[in-house]
């Protein structure tokens, strides 16, 4: 895989709603999550976030997250920064659905590429979704997941 592709899977999401690309998570553990910086994660105003998301943020282990990811959602700098399993994609034989979204910080074209590297990979694009497309582009996301499950189930019956 080209070097630019390998490191290009994260991207800054430009958002007119927040005045540019910004990180959701602050660098300091004691600083609160900035709800104005949520565009690449979920495309909803904070007062409309599903309860499950609010609970997840309340119980998130920030220390472990920063240790693994680093302080920024827009580029790994933690322990996972150099963890690259790209060469193993061709070894994953189970049917796998890779999901990308227009407003995600994960580049949807990289997600599509990953699906093509998998022997039984499929790709779902959520045109109105961010990183939490199951919440902010729910109809497309759930429709695609259900379709994928039905396709895999039909393969098992043939």
Q: Could you name the ranges where pLDDT drops below 50 across 5 or more consecutive residues? A: 1-8, 12-33
Count of discrete structural domains: 2
Shape: globular
Note the run of SSEs as H and E: HHHEHEHH
> Could you tell me the radius of gyration in angstroms?
17 Å
The largest sheet has its strands arranged as 1-2
Helix content: 25-40%
- The strand count comes to 2
Mean pLDDT: 80
First-residue to last-residue Cα separation: 35 Å
Query: Major sheet: size, sense and barrel closure?
Result: 2 strands, parallel
Number of helices: 6
User: Hey, roughly how much beta strand do the residues contain?
Assistant: 5-15%
Structural class: mainly alpha
Output the keywords.
158 residues; mainly alpha; 2 domains; two-stranded parallel sheet; 6 helices; 2 strands; disordered N terminus
What do you see in this structure?
The protein is globular. 35% of the residues lie in helices and 8% in strands. The protein folds into 2 domains: 61 residues, no CATH class; 72 residues, no CATH class. It has a two-stranded parallel ribbon with strand order 1-2. It has 158 residues and is mostly helical. The chain has 6 helices and 2 strands.
